[in-house]
Amino acid sequence: MIQRKIVILLSLLILSLIFNGVQFALLSSSQTIISTTTFTSYHTVTYTVTSTSSVVQVGVEVYPKKFIDFMGREVVIEKEPLKIVSCAPSITEMLAYLGLLEKIVGVDSYSDYPPELLTLKQRGVIEDVGGVVTLSIEKIVSLSPDIVFIDAGLQGNYVAILEEKGLKVVALHAASLTDIYNGMILIGEIMGVKEKAFEIVNRMRNTLSNLQSKLNVVREKTSVLYIGWIEPIWTAGRNTFIDDLIGAADGYNVMGDAEGFFMTSPEVIVAKNPQTIIILSGMLGMSPEEIIAKLRNLPGVDKVEAVKSERIYILYDQAENIFARPGPRAHEAVEILAKILYPELFNVKIPNVLGGDYRKYLEYSISEIGSS
């Protein structure tokens, strides 16, 4: 009896391999597998991403599907969602890069990328559902979405409210590049576009790998201070997206001995003596000159190496967004930061004030990830 069961199992396995091989052959006869990497979404759902020049992941989409989201919640998707509401800019960008823009019916007020999204918002095709932390529940409900994507870190309190209204909610959250990969793949699985998700994740990883190979010669990491707010001074420690970007660019986060986002003081900045200071300026309401003046006027900060060597970088507009939004443009943020920290390796000088034209300084991320 045991032998018979073994034979049956082996037969099923062989049939499965043959079926997948036929599908693979139908799609491509010239794909070369380079390597495989396994990512785990949250802590229970595992996806295998194959790194190739053109990734192939095949299979028939079957609903209902069951997932664990980034809040550890089990979510059952009964059918392919056709109408989406995105409640955070980073999630909106993920959806757009996955080719799902036409399914979005509502986004938060800060979602402004890609440019096509703005056009659709202006035409009223995509509705505004309120600020990231001031969502309009009534507006979301009125759009009758099949699925609502929220950011667990900023909007976790909305989950129960939305579910009480009968809506399907999936929570995402990214404190690292790996979280972005997992989020992209989770959305791809949910929305039936997993092949596209695998492709984009692999292209992001390959871009970063090529960039980081250039950084292999770095022997002494450049120290970095991130400032997200200047009155009071807010910065980022370990276990944050900013810290992960700094590490990926082979920099050293001077605030990495603390965790999360927190307030610091001029005295601490002077003691840490960073070589480079990165400031996200969008919410400060000041000109770059005013920001630098504010920084220089802080007690003792004029003695800091980054200030003395004029290595203060003010990021605004889309240059700020690639650092502030943990989404599919994160590889671009890493490249810009690497070129800020090690200009001699790339034979390029990033300007001290950088905005919407940041892409002209890209080399490794020369093509939009979402483009074909």
Would you give an account of this structure?
With 372 residues, the protein is of the alpha/beta class. The chain has helices at residues 2-27, 89-97, 115-122, 137-142, 152-155, 158-164, 177-191, 194-214, 241-248, 266-272, 288-296, 305-308, 317-324, 330-341, 343-346, and strands spanning 33-41, 45-52, 65-68, 74-77, 84-86, 104-107, 127-128, 130-131, 134-135, 147-151, 169-172, 222-227, 229-230, 233-236, 251-253, 261-264, 276-280, 312-315, 353-354. The protein has two domains: 32-208, Nitrogenase molybdenum iron protein domain (Rossmann fold); 218-361, Rossmann fold (3-Layer(aba) Sandwich), CATH 3.40.50.1980. Helix 3 (115-122) links the parallel strand 6 and strand 7 (127-128). Helix 7 runs antiparallel to helix 8 (194-214) and helix 8 runs parallel beside helix 14 (330-341). The termini are far apart. The model is unreliable at 1-58 (pLDDT under 50).
Indicate the proportion of strand residues: 15-25%
Pick out the low-confidence regions: 1-58
| CATH topology title of the largest domain | Rossmann fold
Biggest sheet descriptor: 5 strands, parallel
Number of strands: 19
> Structural class of the secondary elements?
alpha/beta
Q: For the record, what is the CATH homologous superfamily label of the largest domain?
A: Nitrogenase molybdenum iron protein domain
The proportion of residues forming helix, as a percent range, comes to 25-40%
Q: What would you call the shape?
A: globular
Give the termini distance in whole angstroms. Answer: 53 Å
Tell me the number of helical segments per DSSP (H or I, 4 or more residues long): 15
The average pLDDT value, as a whole number, equals: 85
